[in-house]
Design brief:
With 240 residues, this protein is an alpha/beta fold. Helix content is 34%, strand content 10%. The strands form 3 sheets. A 3-stranded parallel sheet has the order 3-5-7, with helices on one face. It has a two-stranded antiparallel ribbon with strand order 1-2.
Amino acid sequence: MTFQKTLTWRNPRSHHEAVVHRQKVFGYTYEDLDVNVGPMAENMLEPVERWETTRRWLCSSNQPQLLYNYFKQLFAQVTNPPIDPIREELITSTETMLGSQGNILDPNPESCRQIELKTPVLKNEELSALKKVDLEGFKSETLSILFKSGSGGEGLEKAMDELFESADKAIENGANILILSDRDFSRGMIPIPALLAVAGLHRHLIRTGAAYRGGHRAGIRRAAAKRTTSACCSVTGSKR
């Protein structure tokens, strides 16, 4: 027996309806809220997870799945105990740099002109500050990662090509911080999976050479679908 749940579109009449509607658009389940989001909001602690091959292959499921869930890690590849950048700061770090890296084989003072982030996960006010950055040598550009609803695979592919073109134009205009956002979704425009958008754009910048010439990268993702540690790691790792 197959089960299909249709998402009907209507303008939310209250804040609660708006939140629930966004959760449906980005595929949130009761398990996500009860196991992941709820405990983090109440206790400020992330749930302990494991990346093993014990669950069945998602291609055999008759339910829609997030792209993140298709990536798994063998148990032997998981650190035990987990990486701790607080107690083991001499060994590991969560610091992230934004901006143009320049040529690492020919360093100069400009190579050190970067924005240091203590963690790759930003607060809303930190993201707003980066969007409005007004410092010499830094320019941010927000790129939409939406595609036309009902356009299928062809529409998704077209939207990816348009994303690449927008990134190229932004870099030509001096942008060295690219912000990918799916915030302005609507009935006619739905989100591209953030993992696909980030990985695809990163590979495009490598092919065109922009990732090497100026250190440009798809640095920041404003995406609602990420709600687990493994999802954040998948997006971060897609740039490696």
